[in-house]
Amino acid sequence: MKRITIVTDAWSPQRNGVVVVLEHLVPALTKTGYEVAVIQPGLFRFHLPMPTYPEIRLALSTVRKMRRMLQHSRPDHVHVMTEGTLGFAARLACVRGGLSFTTSYETQFPLYAEKRMRGLARPSYRYMRWFHSKSGAIMVPTESMRHILSAKGFHRLVVWPRGVDANLFKASACVFKDLPKPCFVYFGRIAIEKNVEEFLSLPLPGSKLVIGDGPDRAKLERLYGSSATFVGYKTGQELVDALSCADVFVCPSRTETFGLTIVEALSCGIPVAAHDATGPRDILTPGVDGFLDEDLARAAVACLPLSKEACREKALQYSWGRCVDEFLRHLVPVGR
């Protein structure tokens, strides 16, 4: 039985795209016949809150301990999912131990950093280039990300697509029946890099629904709570039932690498209004299942007559089965 060791700084109870991918990837790999070891924050005693994002706890590990954990898992393949403290230790442990490995570029941290403090994008890209420089393959979710990173000096870039659970994400009965129509929704993390305030400030008819949580929720709910309904994090069928109240998903983020929420909305038959940015431009066909526009209010209203069936059809192009197949195809042997 082949063994795969995955190192990640993101793990349950965190809710983000990396965790969602791993929740589908790990069981599928096991079912396929691989033995999967996940080195994740819960295995470590000491943690520190992530600067400007205290709800994310960064696990602390020495390179020596990480090397012991990698040796104990006896992997045929090592994949480093994130560039945080555990990813950093795993990268050094692999390089020093002569192990080949692959990496993912899951999050646009340089853009996140720039949102929080001007001038951080350039040093952040420098760190990211160093981090991924020894990777046997840098897996990115979209062609747009591959082109952007190639232009910034990253090499050995390959596209690793994402999926959606179409059996779960399908239209159901709305649970917020009192919301005036049309209903425009944002769902996901409520943080500065997601640009949620742009959605909340749009002059739209009907009502606005916000599903999710994060460091900016309290501030935005205080400012916009009279004109939008905030319902917190939802998962599973509870999320689908809330989403099913919406006529349009408004995705204001300009920092996505893919945008799992986009295909989840489409799978429920909900068209998407977004900026022409990485993620949305890779997924949406303007005029069919969404619109791309600098004016999100115009895009959102234009989405209202679009076909729910066309949205669902687009989502069905993204399967977790293909995601797993491509992940396996891009792995490299450790080469001990």
From TrEMBL:
<dbReference type="GO" id="GO:0016757">
    <property type="term" value="F:glycosyltransferase activity"/>
</dbReference>
<feature type="domain" description="Glycosyl transferase family 1">
    <location>
        <begin position="179"/>
        <end position="292"/>
    </location>
</feature>
<protein>
    <recommendedName>
        <fullName>Alpha-mannosyltransferase</fullName>
    </recommendedName>
</protein>
<dbReference type="InterPro" id="IPR028098">
    <property type="entry name" value="Glyco_trans_4-like_N"/>
</dbReference>
<dbReference type="InterPro" id="IPR001296">
    <property type="entry name" value="Glyco_trans_1"/>
</dbReference>
<dbReference type="InterPro" id="IPR050194">
    <property type="entry name" value="Glycosyltransferase_grp1"/>
</dbReference>
<dbReference type="Pfam" id="PF00534">
    <property type="entry name" value="Glycos_transf_1"/>
</dbReference>
<dbReference type="Pfam" id="PF13439">
    <property type="entry name" value="Glyco_transf_4"/>
</dbReference>
<feature type="domain" description="Glycosyltransferase subfamily 4-like N-terminal">
    <location>
        <begin position="16"/>
        <end position="167"/>
    </location>
</feature>
